[in-house]
Amino acid sequence: MAAVMPQRRYLTWGSITLLLALSWVLPESGLLNPYVVQILMYVGINMILTLALNLVNGYMGEFSVGHAGFMAVGAYMSSILTVWVIPPALSFWAFPAVLVAGGLAAAATGLVVAFPSFRTRGDYLAIVTLAFNMIVKSVLENLEILGGPRGFLGMPRLTSLPWVTAWVLLTLYLCRNLVYSNFGRGLMAIREDEVAANLTSVDTRKIKMYAFLISAFFTGVAGGLFAHLLQFINPRSFSILKSTDMLVMVYLGGIGSLTGSLLGATIFTLLLELLRPLGLWRWVVGPLLLVLLMIFRPRGIMGLKESKWFIPRFGAGSRRS
């Protein structure tokens, strides 16, 4: 049994290296046309968003409906840095730090939201995050220095398929380690019964705060990738409709499931692209799909289930969920 562990670890890191290599080689070789590469990058960004939101809505059992606000903060912060602060010659090398800065800015605003929200219970987080999303959108629309409702532009196109792949793998790796740790067990205890978790020495308020800030951080990183892919952002890109899309991806793939997050993001992104000929009517699909999911399959496709590939090994040859 002891000889199996190094082999599995080698295969895991080997597959990660292979994915990163393919994400760099395939676009450069011309085997994938730019349209397909663009769609793959959208899928990857949505995977990061879904993994981040699933920490709060799936594993913790709360209901946040305003994560597009954190995405907006990350997008605008990273864009300001690459347009106004960092010289163009250094922007490529500084891009990882720029994304981290956008994530930290989103986490800081998440702290402002979480601090009063988690003093209460029930559906108050949904109300507060919805209000936060509307406040962020309104503030950005009235900041003329950032373009107001016209939007902000001038960012270099720094987002590429290798960068998106790397951040998806990093987000997945960190979320997996977080979920299958003592912290993750505390999260799931809060989801099942917060009062009982508190009575069994789980610091529920601290865990909820940390999970919310981690979720906001990765949402902000996804916003930075989104901004430097389109090279143009405006407040309408981060409206309640964007938050609804995130909710659909989480509940379509399955709550409390890393596999479900990846599956939901992929299915929803490709579905919207296939329905593009419908024009504006395709945006009806998201809210309608969310309503149908809540009625017929509230836990989603992989709700509370996980693929064995994402379950870490504990000890020599043993596996537990």
Describe the 3D structure.
With 321 residues, this protein is mainly alpha-helical. It has a domain at 41-238. 69% of the residues lie in helices and 1% in strands. The chain has twelve helices and two strands. It has helices at 4-29, 34-59, 67-85, 91-117, 124-141, 161-179, 182-192, 194-199, 204-230, 240-253, 258-274, 285-296, and strands spanning 152-153, 232-233. It has a two-stranded antiparallel ribbon with strand order 1-2. α1 (4-29) packs antiparallel against α6 (161-179). The protein starts with a helix and ends in a 25-residue tail after the last helix. Residues 1-11 and 316-321 have low confidence and may be disordered.
Q: Within the largest sheet, what's the order of strands?
A: 1-2
Q: Report helical residue fraction.
A: 55-70%
**Strand runs, count:** 2
Number of helices: 12
List the uncertain runs: 1-11, 316-321
Average pLDDT score: 89
Radius of gyration: 20 Å
User: How far is the N terminus from the C terminus?
Assistant: 19 Å
Report the portion of residues in β strands.
Answer: under 5%
Task: Summarize the helix and strand pattern as letters.
Answer: HHHHHEHHHHEHHH
Broad shape: globular
The largest pleated sheet is described as: 2 strands, antiparallel
Q: Decide which structural class fits the backbone.
A: mainly alpha
Give the helices and strands, then pairings.
Layout: H1 4-29, H2 34-59, H3 67-85, H4 91-117, H5 124-141, E1 152-153, H6 161-179, H7 182-192, H8 194-199, H9 204-230, E2 232-233, H10 240-253, H11 258-274, H12 285-296
Antiparallel strand pairs: 1-2
